[in-house]
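Figure caption, in words: inputs first, then the predicted bound structure.
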Amino acid sequence: MVEKNVKQIITRLTSCLHNHNHLYYVMDEPEISDHEYDNLFNELLELEKKYPEYQVDSSPTQNVGAKPSSAFRSIEHTLPMLSLSNVFNREELENFDRRAHEKLNLPLEQSIHYACELKFDGTAVSIVYEDGILVRAATRGDGKKGEDVTHNIRTIKSIPLELTGKNHPSYLEVRGEVYMPLSGFSDFNKNAEINDERVFVNPRNAAAGSLRQLDPNYTKKRPLDIFFYGVGIVKGIVLPTKHSDILSLLSGWGLKICKENKLVNGVDGCMNFYNQMVKKRHTFDYDIDGLVYKIDQISHQDKLGFVSRAPRWAIAHKFPADEKTTVIESIDFQVGRTGAITPVAKVKPAFVGGVTISNITLHNMDELQRKDVRVGDTVSVRRAGDVIPELVKVIRSKRPSGTSEVMMLKLCPECNSKVVRITGEAVFRCSGGYNCRAQRIEYLKHFVSRKAMDVDGFGVKLIEQLVNSERLLTPDQIYSLNKEELCSLDRVATKTAENLIHAISNSKNTTLDKFIFSLGIREVGQTTAEVLADYYKDLDILMLASEENLQEVPEVGPIVAKNIVVFFENDHNKSIVKNLISCGIKWTSSMTLEGVEKIFEGKTIVITGSFSALSREQLKAKIRNLGGKVTGSVSKKTDFLLSGQDPGSKNQKALDLNVKIIYEREFFELFEAVI
Ligand code: IVH
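Bound structure (2-(butylsulfanyl)adenosine present):
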C-alpha cells in the first residue's frame, strides 16, 4: 500500500467511525449493523497498528462512543467506562487466554478461572449510591463523560433507590446494562403503531432512546430493566478479591444480577458455557449479542490492565449475526389508520432466526432513500431483537442493471386521494381521511379493538366486508347492525351473528378513557386517554378544552394538545361522537362525578336555547350530577336560567323576575372549576 493512500484511508475510516459513533450513541439511530461497525473498526485498528505514525489522538480506537448530547448535564467518569474486545471463535479465545497466561506468568496447564456472563444488548449506565442511597446515574457517553440520567434511572422499577442489606460502602459506583425486555419492546411498538407514534427499530435503541427522554414521565412508561455486571469506584469498604464475589455482594444489596452467570475453568469451560447459551438464548426475554468472559481474580485483572479502550482481563465472545441475503421482489405502499403511507419490501421468503420473513417494513421514505433500496436488489436481512424483520443493507455489488430509485406515490394506492407530506414530518399521508377505504378499515379495527370499545369477535374479515359493501361508513353504524344483515355475510352463521349482536350491545357500557382512545385521535394512545379521562372526567369538557388548558394535563404536550383540539373542531368528528352517544354508549366515570363538589346543590335551574357542545339531555344530566334540579319554566323559585343560542321567551321572563342568567361559556367555566 502506498504511504499516501494509507494516510487517506485512516482519515476516511476515522471520520466514518466518528459519524457512526454519533448515530449510535447520541442519535440512537445506527445506520450500520454492529458487525459492519466492528469490521470498519478492526480495519482501522490494524492500520493504526502497522502505521502508528498516522494514528491521531482523537481516533475512535482511543475512546468509546461519541460526545454526550448537550441536552443533559454531563457527568465525568472518574474511572473511564470502557469497551470490550471481541472474539468470534475458539481459536481467537485461545489466543486471548494464552496472552493472559503470558502476562500473568502462569503456566498454560494452570487454567484461569473465568466469570462467564451474558453480553446484554442494551445501554451501559453507571449508578452511584452514597451511604446506600441512589444519588446519581450517567450513561456511558464517550467513555470519559456521560449524560446525567438520574431522573430517568430512578423510574426503573428494578433499580433500588435505597440499597437493601447491611454494611453499604460510603460510596459505591455500580455499572450495568439497561435493556428493554423483548415482550415489552414488542408491546411498546405495537402500541406505538396503533397510535401512530415512533416505533423503535430494535430493543437496544428503545432502551437508549427511553433513557434519554427529557421528561422522566415518559421513561417511566417504558418497560425498562437492568442487569448489573460490575463496579466502578468504591470507597469505605474492602471489596472481595474475586469478581464473582463482588457480584454476589451487589446482589445482597438488592442490585439485580443475571442468574445465568457462571464461574468456569479455562477455555473449555468458556466454550461449554457458550454452547449452552447458544441453545438457551432464544428463551430469554432480552436480547444478548454474545457472552463476556472475565478473569475472576481481581489481582490478575489489576496486573493485566487495559489496552487503549478495552481491558486485557475480559473479552466478548460475539454470536455470529443471523443475517441472510434475499432479493426484493416488490416495494408496496401500505396505508395506516391515520393515512401514514409506509413502504414495505416484499422479499423472496428467507428463513432467519427461526421464522420465514417475506415482508419487511422500511418505516418511511427517508429510511428507504437512505438505504437506497430498489426492486431486484439483493439485501441482507435479520430480525431486530430477534423479533422484527429488518433490512440491514443493500448489497450494491449485486444490483442488476436497469433498476430505478423508488419514488413515493403521488396518489393513495387505496383511494386515489393526493399523497401529502407535512413539513418536518418523516411520513407521507393519504389526504383522503375517512373517505379512504384503507384508513376506514384500519380505524374500525382500532375502534372495535380490545383496548378501545372491545367489541368481541368483530374481526378484520367482517370489517372488510362491511366497508366494501359501504354498510359501514362510520363507527356508530356498528350499533345499527342487525342479525339478518350479519348472517348474510361470508362465514357468519346464526350463532356467530347472535354473539356479535350481543358483543356490540355489551360494548356500549364502557369507560371514558376507552371511549376517548377509541376515537383514534392522532397520538392519543391508551395512556394519554387515561390521563385525559382522569383529568377532565367529562367528555364535553374535554371537547371544549383549549390547547393551553390541555397542556396543563400531565403528559400532554403542545402537539398532542393541538391534535385533540383539531379533532374536536372537526364537524364530522363531532357528529360521530354525538351519534355514538345517541346509540347508547355510556361510561361510568364521568356521569357520576364521584367526589366532586355539588355546586348546584338545592338549586333549581331552567334551560333555554341551544348549546354548541352538548345536547339538552347531557346538560340536564350534568346539572343533576352537581346536585341541581332542572325544571321547565322560569318562576321566582328559579335560581338560574342557563341560556344558550337563540333563547326563547324564558330569557325575557328571567330578566323580568330578576333571575340570574348563566351563559354557556360561564356554565362550563363553573363546571370546569369543580372537576
Ligand atoms: S463489562 C471494562 N459485562 O458491552 C468492562 N459489559 O463492549 C466493560 N455489556 O459498554 C464492561 N453486557 O454496555 C460488561 N456482562 C457484561 C456486559 C457488558 C453488556 C456491554 C456494556 C459495555 C459493552 C462493552
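The CA atoms of residues 457 and 500 lie 6 Å apart.
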